[in-house]
Amino acid sequence: MKIQIPYTPRKHQAYIHTQLDKHRYAVLCCHRRFGKTVMVLNHLIRAALTNTNHAPRLAYIAPTYKQAKSIAWDYLKYYTKNIPGTKWNESELRCDLINGSRITLLSSENFDSIRGVYMDMVAIDETAQISQGLIDEVISDKILNDRIKAAQKYSINSTPTIIINEKKFED
Q1: What are the DSSP calls for 86-139, one per residue?
Q2: Residue 131 contacts by C-beta under 8 Å, 6 or more apart in sequence?
Q3: pLDDT one-digit tens code per residue, 84-99
Q4: What's this model's pTM, rounded to 2 decimal places?
Q5: Which among 60, 116, 122, 131 could bridge 154 via Cys, Cβ 3.0 to 4.6 Å?
């Protein structure tokens, strides 16, 4: 079955998609309005549809629940709308695909709630606002140490944030 997702990456996004497939970990530092969130969500969708593991689990993590919902939820529903059998769970910010894969939008507000959750792929958005504990204690533990497989990946993307003399400047 051929599935057409209503997404056409820009030139630089297309290049990043090919590079993400070649590497287990990635840190993306792209300018505002680059389309990082749309690009990463579409990468997660494609990975969910093509993953051969049993019931793949993928996650998009934003700094807060409100940001996950306002930034990514509508995009996730839009880009998966043409996939037959897709079900969305609004209260859990979850998209279940016909092959048994699941994409969940999570937040880093209470990162202990993510402990123990199996993940095949993780995308962390707006990392400048995310607790380092999430990456060090939860994500690294799950992705780097647990179930080490070549298929498990994570990417971190953010608009650059620079701290100068204790003042934050975002570019």
Answers
A1: -EEETTTTEEE-TTS-EEEEEESTTGGGGTT---SEEEEE-GGGS-HHIIIIII
A2: 108, 111
A3: 999 999 999 999 999 9
A4: 0.83
A5: 122
